[in-house]
């Protein structure tokens, strides 16, 4: 009962937070037929700044962190991304009326990570003074890259088997290379490298930190408008995708919380770190993933995988999973 009451309090607070209110505002604006439009160039700049900030901050902390303490959470993060894709791919293969490539693409996005959801969770933990290791956001690529690559490889293997025969070979390294060269992952990896190998503390504090929350609100507005348009597309494809997108963030986040708690016992992973790992697992890629999947699985239907991720998965991750796992963390760790 305590968990339910705490969750409801967290949920009510999240509804009033700038993060979710801008997301809802964007959806309402789109639903009312407004012509409001955020230019794509501005959207890309916002994404770049957010990922660079997360990457630089994480790189600085990785440089100063105890590698032994970080190793186990990083391994768990990789495992979560791979397991989510394998489970999702298996599940969609069993459902009627679902094309295998659409299922693999959707599982890939849900195995990957949402930078916007991660940023929203960081803001909430900061607001509630729940400490966490500053390198935890740097776990992002440890889940994101393996999940996207595995989904693309599985879809390509299936496609090759169906259209080119059993003996056709998929160039796995080419898929990996193309995934890493995507704009979003490149920005994140660049930020990590700069934070790890240089001393960008001054530019982080003077430029990236002050812009972070304001640009996050712009991103939420764009995602809200996108969510409404994709929802209409999603309803015309298959209801299985909507059901999966509703339940998967909670299931995936629970896996992340369980492994995070295990890391807490074994290596002293902080309660805030456990909550963030659960949110990372619950999130689904809305920035780096779609263009990567679109390039790697061009025959998959974007209305299915982007619709499921953006219109259902991201709102559930932000509105439900962040307050849910924050409340669970407070209960388990007596915060």
What does this structure look like?
With 335 residues, this protein is mainly alpha-helical. It has a single domain, classed as Na+/H+ antiporter like fold, CATH 1.20.1530.20. It is 81% helix and 0% strand. The protein has 14 helices and no strands. Helix 2 packs parallel to helix 10. The chain is globular, with a radius of gyration of 19 Å.
Gist?
Helices cover 81% and strands 0% of the residues. It starts with a helix and ends with a helix.
What is this structure's SSE topology?
Elements: H1 2-16, H2 18-31, H3 40-64, H4 67-94, H5 100-111, H6 115-127, H7 140-163, H8 172-180, H9 183-197, H10 201-234, H11 239-267, H12 271-282, H13 289-296, H14 302-333
Helix pairs in contact: 1-14, 2-10, 3-9, 3-10, 4-5, 4-7, 4-11, 5-7, 5-14, 6-10, 6-12, 6-14, 7-8, 7-13, 10-14, 11-12, 11-14, 12-14
Structural class: mainly alpha
Measure the end-to-end span. Answer: 17 Å
Main sheet characteristics: none
Poorly predicted segments: none
Question: How confident overall, as mean pLDDT?
Answer: 83
CA-atom Rg in angstroms: 19 Å
How many helical stretches? 14
Q: Label the overall shape.
A: globular
CATH second-level architecture? Up-down Bundle
How much helix, percentage-wise, in residues? over 70%
Query: What is the class in the CATH system?
Result: Mainly Alpha
SS strand fraction = under 5%
The helix/strand series, from N terminus to C terminus, equals: HHHHHHHHHHHHHH
In total, the number of domains comes to 1
How many DSSP E strands? 0
CATH topology: Na+/H+ antiporter like fold
